[in-house]
Amino acid sequence: MTEQGSGMGHELPADLASALRTDASERSERDDMFWIRQRARIQSRIRAGMPRRHPMRVAFAGAVILFLAVLLTAPAGRSPQVAAPPAAEVDADQELLIAVERALASGTPQSLAPLTPFAEPGSNSNETQTIPHKEHGNEE
Amino acid sequence: MSLSIPALAAQSADCSREITAADFEDLVCRHQRKIYRVLLLMLRNPDEADNLTQECFLRAYTTRKTFRGECSVRTWLLGIAVNLARDHIRSRRAGFWKRLLRLDDDSAPEARLEVPSPQPSAERGILAREELDAVWRAVDGLSERQKEVFLLRFVEDLELKEIAEVLQLSTGTVKAQLFRAVWRVREQVGR
Questions:
Q1: CB-based contact (8 Å) between B130 and chain A?
Q2: Does B175 sit within 8 Å of A10, measured CB to CB?
Q3: Is residue B134 assigned to a domain?
C-alpha cells in the first residue's frame, strides 16, 4: 500500500498494459459488416422511436379540437342557472278556465255542435214538416 | 436522422458544441468501437455488448440536447455505457438469483459466452497468452467499480480525471479504486 502515495501503484508494468490494450482491441475486433449492421440498427431504433412523438401530437391536437368544440358549443348548450319557477297556485276556477280554453282550441266536440237544421235550413224537409204538425195540434 | 457528414468530425477535442441530429451518424461511426469494446469487456458477452452499444447510442441520441460540452463526447458516451452495463449486470444478477430460487432447471445456465481469444499476433508474442488470460481472470474477480476504473484506465487509456468524470466520482476515489484494482491484478498475475 505504500506505493499508493508514489503513484506507481496505479500503473501496470508497461509491457503488460500495452499487451492488455492490444488484446482488448483484438478481442473486440469485428468485421466491417458488424459495424455497418450495428449503425443500421441504431438508426432504425432511433427512427422507430420517432413515431412515438406522433401519438403525442395527435393527442395534443385532439385535446385542442375538443377544447375548441367545447368552447363553441358551451353557450348553446349551457342551460342558464335560472331557478325553476314556483309551481303556480292554480285554483279550481283557473283549472276550469284552462280546460275550456283547451277544449275550444281543440275544436268543437260533436256533442256541442249546433243542430244541423239551423246550420243548413231547407236541407232536411222532414223536420220542417213537424212544425206545422205541432201548430195543427194547437189549433185543435 | 440525417446522414450528412458533420462538422463534428473536424473537432479534435469534440467539446463545447451541442450535438445536432446531423452530427449523430458520424458520432456513432467514431465511437461505436470503443463503446462496444468497453461493454464487451465489462459484460463478457458479445450479443449483450452489441445490444447495449445500440442502447447507449439510442440514449445518447434522445438526451443529446442535454450535452453541453462540459466534458468530451467520449467521456459522455462512456458514462452512458458504463451506467447501462452496471444496470445490466445488476439485472443479470437479479435474474440469476431468481432462477436459482425457483430452481428453474430447464433454463440454460447463464448465457455467458467467452470472449473469443484473438489470433496470435506479434504483440502478444511478447507476453504469453496465459499471462493475459490470468489478467482477464483477475479483472473478472474485481469489484464492479474497480473493474470499471481498471478498464477505463488500461483499455481506454483514460486519465484519472476523465475516469472520474465518466464514473462521476472524485479523482481521489478513482485513484484509490485503481490502486486496489492494480494491486489485486498484479498479485494474481505475479508481477
A1: no
A2: yes
A3: yes
Structural domain count, chain B? 2
Structural domain boundaries enclosing B62: 15-106
Same domain, yes or no: B142 and B169: yes
Note the pLDDT of residue B1: 44
Do residues B101 and B21 both lie within one domain? Answer: yes
Is the entire prediction scored with pTM above 0.80? Answer: no
Same domain? B134 vs B187? yes
Q: Which residues of A47-83 are buried (b: 16+ CB within 10 A; e: fewer)?
A: eeeeeeeeeeeeeeeeeeeeeeeeeeeeeeeeeeeee
With bands split at pLDDT 50, 70 and 90, how would you rate the model's confidence at A15? confident
Confidence of residue A4 (pLDDT cuts 50, 70, 90): very low
Contacts of B25 in chain A (CB under 8 A): 39, 43
All three cell numbers of B150, joined, read 481498471
Per residue in B85-121, pLDDT (tens digit) is 999 998 887 776 666 666 554 444 444 445 556 655 6
Q: Which of B116, B176, B191 sits opposite A27 (nearest CB)?
A: B116
Supply the ipTM of this predicted assembly.
0.74
Residues A24, B41: C-beta atoms closer than 8 Å: yes
Query: How many of the other CB atoms lie within 10 Å of CB of B167?
Result: 20
Average pLDDT, chain A: 71
CB burial string A102-133: b at 16+ within 10 A, e below: eeeeeeeeeeeeeeeeeeeeeeeeeeeeeeee
Q: Do B37 and B101 reside in the same domain of the chain?
A: yes
Contact B150, B137 (CB under 8 A): no
B189 in A contact zone (CB under 8 Å): yes
Residue A53 scores a pLDDT above 80: no
